[in-house]
Structures are given as C-alpha cells and as structure tokens.
Design brief:
Strand content: 35-45%
Strand order of the largest sheet: 1-2-8-11-10-9
Number of helices: 4
Largest sheet: 6 strands, antiparallel
Length: 186
Amino acid sequence: MLKLKSITPLGADEARVDRFTGLTITEVTERALVSLSARNDQADAIRDKARGLLGIDLPDIGDSAMGNTHSAFWIGPESWMIDMPYSGNEYLARRVKHAMGDSASVVEQTDGWCRFDLEGATMTSVLERLCNADSANLAEGGVTRTQIHHLGCFLWRQKDGFAVIGPRSSAASLHHALLQAAQSVC
C-alpha cells in the first residue's frame, strides 16, 4: 500500500517562514482554492448561488470579499477565485460545482498555486522592488494581477499584509525573488 505524504510548494514537510528586520515571509499551505467562472449570461445567477453557498457576495473588479471562513477575489471578467481553509474542504470544487450547476465552470486550483504572505513595516518596499503594482495604495481587500520575477501573480491586500499568489510550479523562483528583495530592503 502506498503511503503518500504531501509536501509544501517549496518541497518541505513544513511551511517555511523567513524573518527579516521589519518583514516576515510565510509560505501558506493550508488553503483550498477553486476558480469560478460564469458561463454566458449567467453572472447574476452565480452571484445569487454563491451568496447562498458561501455567505458572501462575489466581489467586483480588483476587489475581494471576506466571510467568516470563505473568501473570494476577482480574477477576471465574471471570474473569481474562492479561498478557504483546506482542512475539511478537500472537496470544495465538487461542492461549488454542485451548487452552480450548468451556470458556471468550476476548477480545482489548490495545487496549481502557491502563496506567500508578507507582513511587516517593509513589505511595501519589498513589493516595490518586485512589481509595478501600486502596493502602497492598494486598499485592504484589493487584488491585482501583476508580474513578479517574470511570473503572473495575484497581489492581494490583507488586513495585516499582502498575499502573493503565484504558480506552484515556480514556487522556488518566486520565493527566491521575495528573499532577494527582502535582503535588499532589510
């Protein structure tokens, strides 16, 4: 019998935490992600269904919505990423697809992305070295798509910092870029 063991996007058993003066970079591993895209002329229908399922309104362009356990952020025209704790939600995509029926395309995204949270006084200075997003003026809950180290990433302003969400296959490159920028600032 196979005894499979999950690893983090950086290939370790435990999530990595890097600390600098005025900055902490944390690899976030316990989040489930599902993309939700409205099919033709179904945006209003899935907004209603999502409200019933998630207890939050799907956000507008460049924004996010935070619930008690569920969050959603805008990723494109009539498209959102749903984010919630992984534990107990291993079948999130199946639940969302069942609730949406034929009105939306739902795709499991959890293992396609990696996430690094930045917190601390120098986080904005670090991001200014990495991308052209106006991180200093991004309001809490704001989301933008940007290039970091030649990678298409989402930059999501959280209450106490930023979440950088990038392709899992390039997690080591993204992490390296974050470390290099942190070392140049801190």
